[in-house]
Amino acid sequence: MPQLNGGGGDDLGANDEMISFKDEGEQEEKISENSSAERDLADVKSSLVNESETNQNSSSDSEAERRPPPRSESFRDKTRESLEEAAKRQDGGLFKSPPYPGYPFIMIPDLTSPYLPNGSLSPTARTYLQMKWPLLDVQAGSLQSRQALKDARSPSPAHIVGPFCLEFPGQADLSLHQFHLSNKVPVVQHPHHVHPLTPLITYSNEHFTPGNPPPHLQADVDPKTGIPRPPHPSDISPYYPLSPGTVGQIPHPLGWLVPQQGQPVYPITTGGFRHPYPTALTVNASMSSLLSSRFPHHMVPPHHSLHTTGIPHPAIVTSNVKQESSHSDIGSLNSSKHQDAKKEEEKKKQPHIKKPLNAFMLYMKEMRAKVVAECTLKESAAINQILGRRWHALSREEQAKYYELARKERQLHMQLYPGWSARDNYAGNYQGKKKKRKREKQAGEGNDLSAPKKCRARFGLDQQNNWCGPCSL
DNA sequence: GGCCCTTTGAAGAAC
DNA sequence: GTTCTTCAAAGGGCC
C-alpha cells in the first residue's frame, strides 16, 4: 500500500492543498482504463457468481491474481506529463507543479488566498471558490456580487458540477477531477439526505437553497429552525491565513471537501470529548456560541445531536434512548441504580462523532455509484468486493490521492475534535448502535462442535498439546 | 429493528 | 513491536 510522506503518518504541518485534475488527454487514457476496469468488473461479477456458487477453497482469488499487471513507468510518466501540462493550462498562476516527482497532485498554493500579486482574485480561483466554498466572499465583501453569486447558483443539484462540467466537457462518470472539484467528497455524510444524482454529496441542498443568504451574513438563519447560524466552525482553522475580503471567513482546510452548503465537515458538539478544553483550536469572538462545546456537557444545555446551527447534524448520531422504560422503572430502582441509569442515559445521549473516513472509504463513496450503475448488483457486500479489487487495481498515484484525502480528513477531524478517540466509538463507550462483535461470533464458532475437528485435523491426535482450549475439552 | 455481509485502512487494545 | 479488534460506508438480506 502506498504510504504518503514516507509513511510518516499525519503531518499536521502539511497544509498544501493537493488537487488532482485530469485533462482531456488523460481522459482518453481514462476511457481505456475504464474499459479495462469494466472488463475487470465483468470478471469480478462472474467470479463473484462463481465464488458464490462454488466452494471458496480455491486460491484463484489470490492477491497476485487479482492485481493487474504492474503499469509501465511510461504510462505513469505520460500521465504525469499530461497532468502537469493540464495544470499549466488551467491557470497560469494558480497551480504549480507537484512538489515531488511521481506524485500526481497539482498544488494549489493556497486556495484560501487565491489572489494574484496585485491583490485581485484569480478568475479561475474565483470560479473555484464559488464552487468549492460557496459561502466564501469571493468578491471581497460585495453584497451585490454575493447576491449575484447566490442567484447564479441553480437550485438544481446540477449546479454542483456546473462550471467544472464546462471545464471538463464530456466527462460523464465520476472521475477524480469531479470527485475533487465538485465537493462530492463527504467527510461525513448525511444519512438521510443522499443526493439522488450523486451519492457523494454530503449534505442536503435544502439547507443551502438559492434563497438562503450566505451564512456569513447576519441574515444567516436556518430555514428550518429560524435560528441564526453561527459562523462555520472551519473559521477557526489555523492552516489558512486570512486573505483580503475573507476576514472572519477562513475557509476550511478541506475547503474543497466541504459540502456546498457550507456546513461543517465535522460538527462541534457539546459532548463526547474526553478533554473538555482542547487547545488545538483557536476560538475567535464569533465562535463564542461554540464555547459550550468547550465545557463538559453537563454545563451546557443538552443539544445532543443538534449542530450549533440548531439543526441536527448528520455527523452526529445520537442514540435512541428509550427514556420511557427507564422512567417507568424508576419506582423499582433504588437510588444508586437510578443514578447509574441516569449516568448511562447521559452517556447514551452523547453525540456520536464518527471516525474519519480512510482512503478506501473515500474511494468507495466515490465509486460505489459508478459500480452500481455498471452492474446489476445491489448488495453492498458484493459491491464492496468489486470496489476492493478495483482499489487494488488502482495505480499508486491514484491511490495516493485518496490517501492524501484521508490524511487531510484525519487532520481536520483532529482539529475539530482534539479529544476524540476512536475508542470513544467502541461499543463499550458508545451505547447507540451496538453491533455484535464479530470476534465474539468467531469465538463462538470456536466453541461449536466443528472446532475440535479443526484442531484434530490440523494437529492430529498425537499433538493434542497444540489443540486449543475448547478442542482439548 | 437491528445485525450481517464485504471491503481496506486507521487506531486502540492486548500481548 | 506485533497481533488482534473495532469502526468507518453502503444497502440488500436475513432473523
From TrEMBL:
<feature type="compositionally biased region" description="Basic and acidic residues">
    <location>
        <begin position="337"/>
        <end position="348"/>
    </location>
</feature>
<keyword id="KW-0805">Transcription regulation</keyword>
<dbReference type="InterPro" id="IPR024940">
    <property type="entry name" value="TCF/LEF"/>
</dbReference>
<dbReference type="InterPro" id="IPR027397">
    <property type="entry name" value="Catenin-bd_sf"/>
</dbReference>
<dbReference type="GO" id="GO:0060070">
    <property type="term" value="P:canonical Wnt signaling pathway"/>
</dbReference>
<dbReference type="GO" id="GO:0048699">
    <property type="term" value="P:generation of neurons"/>
</dbReference>
<feature type="region of interest" description="Disordered">
    <location>
        <begin position="320"/>
        <end position="353"/>
    </location>
</feature>
<feature type="domain" description="HMG box">
    <location>
        <begin position="353"/>
        <end position="421"/>
    </location>
</feature>
<keyword id="KW-0010">Activator</keyword>
<feature type="compositionally biased region" description="Gly residues">
    <location>
        <begin position="1"/>
        <end position="11"/>
    </location>
</feature>
<dbReference type="GO" id="GO:0000785">
    <property type="term" value="C:chromatin"/>
</dbReference>
<dbReference type="GO" id="GO:0071664">
    <property type="term" value="C:catenin-TCF7L2 complex"/>
</dbReference>
<comment type="similarity">
    <text>Belongs to the TCF/LEF family.</text>
</comment>
<dbReference type="GO" id="GO:0000981">
    <property type="term" value="F:DNA-binding transcription factor activity, RNA polymerase II-specific"/>
</dbReference>
<dbReference type="GO" id="GO:0021903">
    <property type="term" value="P:rostrocaudal neural tube patterning"/>
</dbReference>
<feature type="region of interest" description="Disordered">
    <location>
        <begin position="1"/>
        <end position="96"/>
    </location>
</feature>
<keyword id="KW-0238">DNA-binding</keyword>
<dbReference type="GO" id="GO:0010456">
    <property type="term" value="P:cell proliferation in dorsal spinal cord"/>
</dbReference>
<dbReference type="GO" id="GO:0007507">
    <property type="term" value="P:heart development"/>
</dbReference>
<dbReference type="GO" id="GO:0060847">
    <property type="term" value="P:endothelial cell fate specification"/>
</dbReference>
<dbReference type="Pfam" id="PF08347">
    <property type="entry name" value="CTNNB1_binding"/>
</dbReference>
<feature type="compositionally biased region" description="Polar residues">
    <location>
        <begin position="320"/>
        <end position="336"/>
    </location>
</feature>
<keyword id="KW-0879">Wnt signaling pathway</keyword>
<dbReference type="InterPro" id="IPR009071">
    <property type="entry name" value="HMG_box_dom"/>
</dbReference>
<feature type="compositionally biased region" description="Polar residues">
    <location>
        <begin position="47"/>
        <end position="57"/>
    </location>
</feature>
<keyword id="KW-0539">Nucleus</keyword>
<feature type="compositionally biased region" description="Basic and acidic residues">
    <location>
        <begin position="63"/>
        <end position="91"/>
    </location>
</feature>
<feature type="region of interest" description="Disordered">
    <location>
        <begin position="427"/>
        <end position="452"/>
    </location>
</feature>
<dbReference type="GO" id="GO:0008284">
    <property type="term" value="P:positive regulation of cell population proliferation"/>
</dbReference>
<feature type="region of interest" description="Disordered">
    <location>
        <begin position="207"/>
        <end position="231"/>
    </location>
</feature>
<dbReference type="GO" id="GO:0000978">
    <property type="term" value="F:RNA polymerase II cis-regulatory region sequence-specific DNA binding"/>
</dbReference>
<feature type="DNA-binding region" description="HMG box">
    <location>
        <begin position="353"/>
        <end position="421"/>
    </location>
</feature>
<dbReference type="InterPro" id="IPR013558">
    <property type="entry name" value="CTNNB1-bd_N"/>
</dbReference>
<keyword id="KW-0678">Repressor</keyword>
<feature type="compositionally biased region" description="Basic and acidic residues">
    <location>
        <begin position="19"/>
        <end position="43"/>
    </location>
</feature>
<protein>
    <submittedName>
        <fullName>Transcription factor 7-like 2 isoform X23</fullName>
    </submittedName>
</protein>
<keyword id="KW-0804">Transcription</keyword>
<dbReference type="GO" id="GO:0030901">
    <property type="term" value="P:midbrain development"/>
</dbReference>
<dbReference type="GO" id="GO:1990907">
    <property type="term" value="C:beta-catenin-TCF complex"/>
</dbReference>
<dbReference type="Pfam" id="PF00505">
    <property type="entry name" value="HMG_box"/>
</dbReference>
<dbReference type="InterPro" id="IPR036910">
    <property type="entry name" value="HMG_box_dom_sf"/>
</dbReference>
